[in-house]
Design a protein that fits this description.
The protein is of the alpha+beta class. It has one domain: 2-Layer Sandwich (Alpha-Beta Plaits). 41% of the residues lie in helices and 33% in strands. The chain is built from 3 helices and 4 strands, in the order βαββαβα. It has a 4-stranded antiparallel sheet with strand order 2-3-1-4, with helices on one face. α1 (18-35) packs antiparallel against α2 (62-75). The longest helix has 18 residues, at 18-35. The radius of gyration is 14 Å and the shape is globular. The two termini are 20 Å apart.
Length: 95
């Protein structure tokens, strides 16, 4: 499976009420699980800096990655940047 990194910035309006944000995050997660069955969610990290969230997912379907990003954008009040990630050892072996 290919690994993808999704970098997200959450809109300030989504963070106004922490309880509502938790509910929104749960709702978005459920929608992705339901609508993107070929995607394995590996990990999510809250970060400080340019991005608020870093998500790591795996899938063999590049179209599913786009669908995940669009769900985050439309349901999660986020902007996203997505990139494919190659494990360092695999990258070095390919050189």
């Amino acid at each position: 499976m290919a690994t993808y990194v999704i970098l997200s910035r959450v809109s300030p309006q989504a963070l106004e009420d922490p309880r509502e944000f938790k509910q929104l995050a749960s709702k978005v997660s459920a929608k992705i699980k339901r609508d993107c069955p070929g995607v394995t969610w590996k990990e999510s990290f809250a970060t400080l800096g340019r991005f608020d969230v870093v998500d790591i997912i795996e899938t063999d379907d590049p179209k599913a990655v786009g669908k995940v990003a669009m769900i985050l954008r439309t349901s999660g009040h986020e902007t996203t940047e997505t990139m494919m990630a190659t494990p360092w050892k695999e990258f070095l072996a390919a050189l």
